[in-house]
Amino acid sequence: MFELDAAVTHAINGLAERSAVVDFLMIWVSSIGVPLLVLAVAGQWWRQAERPHTRHALVAAGLSFLLGVALNQLILLFVHRMRPYDSGATHVLIAPSADPSFPSDHATATFAIAAAFLLHGMRRVGLGFLAAAALVTFSRVYIGTRYASDVLGGALTGVIAAFAVRAVYRQDTRIDRLVTGIL
Q1: Distances (CA, A) of 120 to 2, 19, 57, 123
Q2: In CATH, what number is assigned to the domain containing residue 83?
Q3: What's the number of domains the chain is made of?
Q4: Fewest C-beta atoms under 10 Å: which of 31, 129, 137, 165?
Q5: Residue pLDDT, tens place only, 40-60
Q6: Residue 183's pLDDT is what?
C-alpha cells in the first residue's frame, strides 16, 4: 500500500517546478486556502436567504472544523508519520515543517467545511467548498508537504467530524436559536 501512496504522491509532486506560475499558485493556495475558506464561511453570516438555516449550517461548519482538528490531535498521539520530503519521496517547494505528516489539518479543515454544508442541504455552496477543498488538498501534495494518503486521511477526519456534528447539533434547539440569533 505504501508503494501506491508514494507513487501517487511522487506523480503529483512531479508536476512541480515545470511552471513558475503554477508553482506560485499552488504555494499560494496551500498557504492561504484555509483562511480564505474560513472568511468565506464567516462572510455568509449576514446572508439574507434562509437566514436561520444558513446560520445553523455556518455554526455546524465551524464546529466540524474544530472537531476535525481535535480528532487529528488525538490521531497524532498514536501516529508519527515522517513528511514525504524527509523520506525522499518528494521535493518541497516551501520551508519544511517539523510536525508529523498524517493526517493533514488542511484537508481536515476544508473537507469538514464542505461536508457540513452538503449535509445541511446547502448543495450549491457545499459543492463550491468541496471544489476549494480538493484544490487545497491537491496543492499540499503538489508542493511536497504531504503524501496523498495524508490528505485522504485528513479529508476522512473532516467528513467524520461533520457527520458527528450533524448528529448532535440540531437546528431550532434552544442553543441553536441562541447562537444563530447573535447579530
Answers
A1: 36, 39, 6, 8
A2: 1.10.606.20
A3: 1
A4: 31
A5: 988 887 776 677 888 899 999
A6: 58
